[in-house]
């Protein structure tokens, strides 16, 4: 069994959080006499920035991708979009491709991505994933930071695997 929990915790997101925090507290440390803003305007600016900061922190901690590969199949959940976990049995999986992907070009970024075709991607960071092709023709790309562990599990359950270096 293999379980992976991924979050949006890239270094550049942390840097952005620090910048937003600095902007939010800057009016508090500035000299009020030199500011053009009234106290009401200053309070509304600080409140707005703190709300944005709160949303950003909430996004950072709430959003996560949970994947589990076990003897029954693949279970995945992208919080908060999936309230309950989704499950696909080994019998439903036609093949799998372990590959590098371009999140911006292929899916428009990271996160919960769906398309009008039968493709879906659930990613939080990086550019490595497991592209599962199901018997019904649907495809699901699950981002992972541990493709080697998943390859071993897929081999154990006789899922045809392609390994792409792209």
Main sheet attributes: strand count, strand direction, barrel closure = 6 strands, mixed
Number of strands: 10
- What does the radius of gyration come to? 21 Å
The H-and-E topology, N to C, reads as EHHEEEEHEEEEHE
- As residue ranges, the low-confidence spans are none
Question: Which structural class do you get from the secondary structure elements?
Answer: alpha+beta
Helix content: 25-40%
> Per DSSP, what share of the residues sits in E-state strands of 2 or more residues?
25-35%
- Mean pLDDT across the residues is 84
- The side-by-side strand order for the widest beta sheet comes to 6-7-9-8-5-10
**Helix count, DSSP H or I runs of 4 or more residues:** 4
Using the alpha-carbon principal axes, give the shape: elongated
Distance between the termini: 27 Å
Descriptive report:
The chain has helices at 11-29, 39-62, 103-107, 147-156, and strands spanning 2-7, 64-69, 73-79, 86-89, 93-100, 111-114, 119-123, 128-134, 139-143, 161-163. The protein is α+β, with helices and mostly antiparallel strands and 166 residues long. The chain has a 6-stranded mixed β-sheet with strand order 6-7-9-8-5-10, with helices on one face. The chain has a 4-stranded antiparallel β-sheet with strand order 1-2-3-4. It is elongated, with a radius of gyration of 21 Å. The mean pLDDT is 84.
């Amino acid at each position: 069994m293999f379980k992976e929990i991924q979050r949006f915790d890239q270094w550049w997101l942390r840097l952005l959080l620090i910048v937003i925090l600095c902007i939010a507290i800057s009016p508090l440390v500035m000299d009020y006499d030199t500011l053009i803003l009234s106290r009401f305007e200053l309070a509304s600016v600080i409140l707005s920035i703190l709300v944005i900061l709160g949303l950003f922190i909430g996004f950072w901690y709430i959003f996560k991708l949970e994947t589990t590969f076990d003897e029954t199949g693949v279970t995945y959940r992208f919080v908060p979009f999936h309230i309950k976990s989704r499950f696909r049995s080994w019998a439903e999986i036609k093949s799998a491709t372990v590959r590098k992907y371009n999140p911006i070009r292929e899916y428009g970024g990271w996160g919960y991505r769906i398309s009008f075709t039968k493709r879906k991607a659930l990613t939080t960071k990086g550019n490595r994933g497991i592209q599962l092709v199901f018997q019904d023709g649907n495809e699901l790309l699950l981002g992972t930071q541990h493709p080697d562990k998943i390859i071993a599990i897929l081999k154990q359950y006789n899922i045809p695997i392609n390994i792409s270096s792209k």
